[in-house]
Amino acid sequence: MSRLTGKVAVVTGGASGMGRATVMRFLADGAKVVVADLNEANGRETLSVARAQGHGDDIAFVRCDVANEAEVAAMVAEAVRRFGRLDIAYLNAGVGGAFGPIAETSVEDWDYTFAVLVRSVFLGMKHTSSAMRKLGGHREKGGGVILVTASIAGMVGGGGSHAYSAAKAAVISLIENVAAELGPHRIRVVGIAPGVISTPLLHRGKPERYEAQFKRQPWPDRGEPEAIADVASFLVSDEARFITGETVKVDGGLLAQGVALFGSGRDSTFLKSAGVNRGTTGEAMVVRHLEPQSEKKG
């Protein structure tokens, strides 16, 4: 019997990158999966890939804005309606968010970043934990597992823009605090903190642009989405039944040696332009290229 046989999972941001790789791994491990994503075209493609592998009856797609409470509640309700229960929630949806100097960051871009990266996790925890307490297991095996994609950027400076890093730090704190609350209900809350992973969110179709970031990690192999999926499958399984409140680094040793992934000081990539990265949502990225500070003073 596979490690997730009989389990029902929802995966937000499940239509591309780490999310899609994890959806395929959960299916291969015996779970039934509801994929939630804002990008409907990617969602249809994910369904096609899963059906080609013989998982047509075990997967469904719902369009979901993870920052919208009604849509998150509807996602959970669809999982219960279709598959009868909820055991696993992988709150993975994310965007690069606001970037640029702090003085060039708009309130709207800051709020958007925190809505997608932090409010979504709060909403996901709120609604999935409620379903798990009612339907997600029994006393011997527990109520369920909430897994969250954090980031090493939330653990140290130099791993991302100020808005993204602050949002991911908030997520790591949520993981710890909610794990303490939900432990008595046999609901585990755990996180994965990826390093540099080759996904559309990072490279936006041009992976060759990020070779320098991959070369900064000690481990010689490129970070691929499947590396995250492998760890996710373990963390949501009964094999990890005594792990909760923990965020696991999956970064090829990058954080162990210290990071400055996008340059440091005035050479930082995040200080040369400003805007907001909306990831794989299908919505346009906004970039404003900034003049060097020396030219502005002149």
Provide the spatial order of strands within the biggest beta sheet: 3-2-1-4-6-7-8
What number of structural domains do the residues give? Answer: 1
The average pLDDT value, as a whole number, equals 89
Please give the radius of gyration in angstroms: 19 Å
Report the structural category: alpha/beta
What does this structure look like?
The protein is of the alpha/beta class. It has one domain (8-297): Rossmann fold (3-Layer(aba) Sandwich), CATH 3.40.50. It has helices spanning 17-28, 40-52, 69-83, 107-135, 162-182, 200-203, 211-215, 225-235, 254-257, 293-297; strands at 8-12, 32-37, 59-63, 88-91, 97-99, 144-149, 187-194, 247-250, 273-277, 286-289. The radius of gyration is 19 Å and the shape is globular. The termini are far apart.
Q: How are the SSEs ordered, and which strands pair?
A:
Blueprint: E1 8-12, H1 17-28, E2 32-37, H2 40-52, E3 59-63, H3 69-83, E4 88-91, E5 97-99, H4 107-135, E6 144-149, H5 162-182, E7 187-194, H6 200-203, H7 211-215, H8 225-235, E8 247-250, H9 254-257, E9 273-277, E10 286-289, H10 293-297
